[in-house]
Design a protein that fits this description.
264 residues; mainly alpha; 4% strand
Length: 264
Amino acid sequence: MALLDHLKELKNRLFKSALAVIAGTVVGFIVYQPLLAALIKPIKDLNNSGGRLAALNFDGVASSFDLMVQVSIFLGVIIASPVWIYQLWAFIVPGLHKKERRLALSFVAAAVPLFVAGVLLAWFVLPNAVRVLTEFTPEGGSNFISADIYLAFVIRLLLAFGIAFLIPVVLVGLNLAGIIKGQQLVKSWRITIFLVCLFAAMAAPGADAMSMFYLAVPMLLLFFAAIGLCLLNDKRRARRQAKVAEETEATADVATSSADLDKL
């Protein structure tokens, strides 16, 4: 297509994605109250543990409304993720070959559930993370947490887990593209384990280190599963290259017929 046609198609797909996000945001407004109650619950639970005083603080007249808008939009983006990811894929697909289309679709099909699984695991870890981080409050102190700061903390935690679960998918994609090989990942397994545990300790701290294992163990399993897929793909690629080389060598010494020479 011409450039203007590409821009027109991009505009249409962005419009469809925006409609999906708006619809998801409306759903976010509807479920905002129970969702906010679930978000605040870890803070309320602090009042029942250790005699500490904790509360979510709204430091402005419109702060509560701003929080509702931010939470609803964030939830709308998550709800509409299958739509805008598909629109992005559909915009790129016409420029890909048939095999590349299958790879792109497989990447999207694997990325969405893994990202959602990471977000759900972060939601499970959130109460423990809030409890541990507020334990550093000096004796006699109180935790009056700003709503904006708390929301930013929750979003960072959810995104950290979601993106962490996407890294193995990216590794497989790089291997399919021929950028990295499975043997390279196997050789760096020690540094991989160290980096995964370090990331898990920073993203999900816990008093008994259990929250770290909640993130580290699934990540390590996904990493080693990705390494296995990369090794299988390398073997498949090597067999295909060997077959092409054999066919080329078999036909290299065959004389060209006079009829083919006349055509040339």
